[in-house]
Amino acid sequence: MCLLTSDGVRIEAAHTPRRARSEADPATCAGTPAIVLAHGFTGALERPALRRAAAAFSQHADVITFSFRGHGGSGGRSTVGDREVEDLAAAVRWARALGHRRVATVGFSMGGSVVLRQAALHGPGEHGERTDARPDTVVAVSAPARWYYRGTAPMRRLHWVITRPTGRLVSRFGLGTRIHSEDWDPVPLSPTEAAGRLAPTPLLVVHGDRDPYFPLDHPRMLMSAADPATAELWIERGFGHAENAAAPELLGRIGEWITARTPS
C-alpha cells in the first residue's frame, strides 16, 4: 500500500490482520483495535526487527507498519523525527479508513519521539472532538526526551552521520537511509514538551536499563512532564535499545497493556 502524506511524500505501508482474522474486512475492523508501529532511525517496513514486532502485536490487534520518509521504499528524505509526524499521521488515518475505531501508536527510538509529537500535534479539533489522525493510546519505547543529545558514544556517531556530508553518504549507501541535508528550522517541539500535552490519552513509556543510546534520565524526564494519572513508566531490566532488542515477552506485555487501555 502507498500512502500520501499531507506534505506530498509517498510512504509504503502494510496491514497485518490480527491472528484471529484473515483479512481487513471493515465490518470486523470496527471492533478490532489497530496498532501502528513507528520504527527507529535506519529501520523500515521490511526489516526483520519490525516484522518480528508486527508478528508479536498481531496476537492482540491488527497491525499497520510503514517506512518513514527516506527509509525503505518510501519517498523523500529523513528529517530525523521532524516531518515524520506527517508519515505517522497518514498511517493513523489509513487505520481509521480501514474501519478501526480504536488506534494505538507504538514508536521505537526516533519513532518513539515521533509518536509523542504526533499525538500532541494532532490533538482534539476546534470543538474538542477527536481528529482522524489522533491515536487513542500512545507507547514510546527507547525514546529520547530532548534533542541534540550527544552524551553517549552511539549518539555521537549518529550525529556525525546526520550532520556531515560524508556521514549522509554512509547512511544512504551503507544503511539505506536518505537524510535531508538542511537543519531544523524551526526546532520541533521536544518529546518532553509533547508528553506534557497528551492527557487524557493513555501513555506508556518503556525503557531499558542497558540502553546504549539514551540513559534513564530520558524516560524519567518524559514521565515528569506527563500526567501521572494517565501515564505509566516501565524500566526493563536487561533491555537494550528499541525494536532490535525487544523480546517477544516484552512486546506481548505491551500489546496486553494497549488492549486493556484502548477505549472502545
TrEMBL record:
Keywords: Hydrolase. One of its GO terms (molecular function) is hydrolase activity. Residues 33-124 form the AB hydrolase-1 domain. It comes from the Bacteria. This is Alpha/beta fold hydrolase. It comes from Streptomyces sioyaensis.
